[in-house]
């Protein structure tokens, strides 16, 4: 009963965070539409930007709903062998247009052999996308002269396979991330080092990953910092 | 008018910039508080349009710093934010009384026309 | 010239001439300092520093012949970034800095620096309610000013009775037995005792109904501050 109560609170906080985040794409779409009317120049309206914002909003809603579903069916999760590097590659492709709109360059580092991991394929993809959209928007907003670059990388460690997204986020620390996990849904800006807004995508990604017995942690890769998850390779599949 | 637009979301900023430019204003856009101080140092704005939720800082920190410079004490500031009126309830008075904020606008409910009108009125009153 | 090193919290910054700034800082051992930061108006100077409001830095400075010394260097040590995650917390932090700036003299008073530093820490803990922080801060200001209400006997010298209700007599700085139903009862008085004994907000928060008690008792502390 208590676990269910806690899950309800968490779902409620996540919904509040998502609702706050949705203000951004919806405002962007509304103002873009108004721009054509205001100026009498429909050509000023950036249809590409409207599409990008709408797609990002829809992805966030879908990831949130999937996250809820996975959290509630955790015991009977449909796990299968998943290639983390392929899923990251797929996410990078899906993020391309969004990143371009925001002027953020994506770099993919997935070279090397990575054994498959047992995961919920759709959940993993949704988590990486959710994380990606949030970090692209955050990278574009950073108050820094550095070039806007987001690196999607997979690499081996003694603890497992790490898949993460890394950028230039001034002051991001493990302590701040732990604090943000308690603040989302209750503070408008739970992770100021990264996001100017609610950062909902980050917490939706974390919720999805925790349903798969992973979670997001602050990580570092080639002088960049970001958020990453660790996965254990499937020992069973090594014998297949 | 020279507008300093402090807006972390670059897509939203592009829309606001186009609307302001269409209304005849020059616009300098920055995404954060430190860059905003540097931009103002480069050229004093006629008006500042400020989102309170900024990366690494609060717009209040920017305002506090901005108002500590003699030449910027009377520059009109329009707060244009995603924070709702309920979230701003206790801060609005202090912002207007102590930090010289002339208007507080809730972004999702503020049309481009409303923003342009507020910028026009704020600079006329200054 | 002797260079001195200390922790410091910036209370404010103002212009001085074309190129310089005067920083007002609170320090543990040198009290409130006014230091000139030369050339920082050219923002690219290394002393331009950040614009963080809620931070503790380590500074190196040289005392001046007059009342204004010179800042040599500054390094940010801790920035309490959670405070800006929420506008109400940011506003309260800003108001408490302003309040402290107004009431501090130039005498070295380590306690004021400690108070402000502790205030940043509790504001940074977003689970501690704001009315409690504001109440606790006001109580500390009153205590540091050498004042304290009588929380053990009423204004006629009788021990306070847990079964009675009281009103507060500002002139006598003591509770007065209410003719009918008073504004304050035993829980308020116990809460005030804990606060005036110097217990931190983390401890006060453990008391049931602490946020409401803080809000109810705020009138007492606000009236005291207004009078001293």
Any overview of this molecule?
The complex is a heterotrimer of chains A (240), B (126) and C (228). Chain A has 240 residues and is α+β, with helices and mostly antiparallel strands. Chain A is built from seven helices and seven strands, in the order ααβαββαββααββα. The mean pLDDT of chain A is 89. Chain B has 126 residues and is of the alpha/beta class. Chain B has a domain of 88 residues: Rossmann fold (3-Layer(aba) Sandwich), CATH 3.40.50.2300. Chain B is 44% helix and 20% strand. In chain B, strands 2-1-3-4-5 form a five-stranded parallel beta sheet, sandwiched between helices. In chain B, helix 3 links the parallel strand 3 and strand 4. In chain B, helix 2 runs parallel beside helix 3. Chain C has two domains: 79 residues, Nucleic acid-binding proteins (OB fold (Dihydrolipoamide Acetyltransferase, E2P)), CATH 2.40.50; 101 residues, Recombination protein O, C-terminal domain (de novo design (two linked rop proteins)), CATH 1.20.1440. In chain C, strands 1-2-3-5-4 form a five-stranded mixed barrel. A three-stranded mixed beta sheet of chain C has the order 6-8-7, with helices on one face. In chain C, a hairpin with a 4-residue loop joins strand 7 and strand 8. In chain C, helix 1 packs antiparallel against helix 2, helix 2 packs antiparallel against helix 3 and helix 4 packs across helix 6. The longest helix of chain C has 18 residues. Chains A and B meet through helix 1, helix 2 and helix 4 of A and helix 1 and helix 2 of B.
